[in-house]
Amino acid sequence: MDKSIFDLVIDNLALEIKKPLLRLPVRVKENTEEIRLRVNSPLMIYSEGKDYYIGSDGDIRNIHEGLIIDSDIILKTFQLVCNYSVYALSEEIKNGYITIKGGHRVGICGKIIYNNGEIESIKNISSLNFRIAREKKGISDNIIHYLIRDGDFLNTMIISPPQCGKTTLLRDIVRNLSNGVKKKGIRGYKIGLIDERSEVAGIFNGIPQKDIGIRTDILDSCQKSEGIMMMIRAMSPEIIAVDEIGSQRDAESISEALRAGIRLIATIHGHSIEDVISRASIKSLFDERVFKRFIIMDNSSGVGTINEILDEDMFINLLEKRKKYVTA
């Protein structure tokens, strides 16, 4: 029998914690988003929107009965994640995470070592967070046509709080745009994906672990502002896709791409429309009405819930109405 995604991920864990995690109910495994190891704290997973503490027998326990993670377990697990070659992954480690086979990301906390003002390494590892990346192919099938008008892709922004599935949705939109959707009359587009955190394509040893379509070129672990310009110069994309914009440099690079005639799809963290539009660093994008479609996400019906899809006029009108309500 083929291993589940969860079981493949925990192959990277020390045996002391792999064994109890293997005993978890299938339902819990299938919905687990994170496995967290913190020194001198109980083994914890995040599944179905809740934290669960796991005992040494694999049972779900209260916080005081969970299997306590010691520094030896963290060290063993870190060595497994690095395949016993920490030096070979030093560049990734400096960024605070490692991407493992399957496109899953392992976040790292510990003592930061600086050299000439720049991060050189992380040592004395105190926390590891395994973020399980799950593909949900087809989740954009019913909305993709809203992003096209007269055969042209409309600049699109996905607004979502953390852990509501925005990266998963972005990935599936990229896949559909890249492959084309024949039954909806949507042709395939050349996509330039700037995957700064290795979360969208999940590249491992140069190979995407996730399906991002046949016409997609990827700059992995590249800053968005630099990657956008590199894509423009080198790969002639029709659409550039970026995850989690937020800085002024991001906004400036997006404006450069627009001047080159390139379309954009971007995600941004935000708990509300007001939260996003109030940020000075990207205010210019709203002032210039860069985006023509806004996908608003939340987790009201579970991860990946699409709450609203707005065009630019609906977006501005809704914002104005809410402003009047707040000030009334």
Explain briefly what this protein structure is.
The protein has 11 helices and 20 strands. The protein is an alpha/beta fold.
What is the CA-based Rg, rounded?
21 Å
- Percent range for β-strand residues: 25-35%
Structure annotation, total helices:
11
Q: Could you tell me the number of beta strands?
A: 20
**Whole-number count of domains:** 2
Separation, N- and C-terminal Cα atoms: 62 Å
Structural class: alpha/beta
Uncertain residue ranges: none
Helicity, as a percent range: 25-40%
- Averaging pLDDT over every residue, what do you get? 90
Query: What would the CATH topology of the largest domain be?
Result: Rossmann fold
| Net shape | globular
Q: Supply the CATH architecture of the largest domain.
A: 3-Layer(aba) Sandwich
Per CATH, the superfamily of the largest domain is P-loop containing nucleotide triphosphate hydrolases
Instruction: List the strand order in the largest sheet.
Output: 5-4-3-1-9-8-7
CATH class of the largest domain: Alpha Beta
What's the story with the biggest beta sheet?
7 strands, antiparallel
